[in-house]
Amino acid sequence: MIYFDSPIRRLWIAYYKYSQPLNWDYQGAGFNIPPWDVFTVHQFTGSDMDRNMVNTTKEGWLKMANPNDVAVNLRYSARTKSNIIATLPAGSTIKYDAFSRHAGYVWIRQPRENGYGYMAVRDTKTNQPFGKFE
Q1: Which class for 34: exposed (0-12), middle (13-18), buried (19 or more C-beta within 10 A)?
Q2: What is the pTM assigned to this prediction?
Q3: CA 102 to chain CA centroid, nearest Å
Q4: Helix, strand or coil for residue 121?
Q5: Which residue from 70, 65, 66 is spatially nearest to 54, judged by alpha carbons?
Q6: Same domain, yes or no, for 10 and 54?
């Protein structure tokens, strides 16, 4: 099984026929994974237990564990190539008055003092939100 999540570009490989010795001396995945240079998680069966080899930092792991906990760009128009007004940190509360579904995203419109700001909040292909909605 291979799991690939495109927004964060992580690759998880579950390959249980591969067996490691009874120590933690990792012998490698045993196969190629192009077009990726590296996998994020290789899950396999060791001689005595299932194991996971993870190629990331603590911060990278937390980002994968909490994919909606990311900063989001507020833009001058509802296009990814539009100039950025501000990058809002994870946990920000955004009030919006309208939304639009186009160009691969659901966009919200935020009223601002001098007009509007626009933010992509959901991938239309996967329906994956980029934040939490209440």
Answers
A1: exposed
A2: 0.53
A3: 20
A4: strand
A5: 65
A6: yes
Q: Which of 18, 12, 40, 30 is nearest to 1 (CA)?
A: 12
CA distances to 25, 49, 56, 113, 134 from 131, rounded to whole Å, are 39, 36, 23, 24, 10
- The rounded distance, in Å, linking the Cα atoms of 59 and 40 is 13
Q: How many separate domains does the chain show?
A: 2
Looking at the structure, do residues 10 and 53 belong to the same domain, yes or no? yes
Domain-located, residue 128:
no
Asked whether residue 6 falls in the same domain as residue 54, the answer is yes
Q: Is there a single domain that holds both residue 52 and residue 99?
A: no
CA atoms of 84 and 86, how far apart (whole Å): 6
Handedness of CA 65, 6, 40, 51 (dihedral sign): positive
Residue 80: pLDDT over 60: yes
Question: What's the pLDDT tens digit per position in 43-76?
Answer: 777 666 777 777 778 777 776 766 666 678 999 9
Asked if 74 and 88 count as a contact pair (C-beta separation under 8 A), the reply is yes
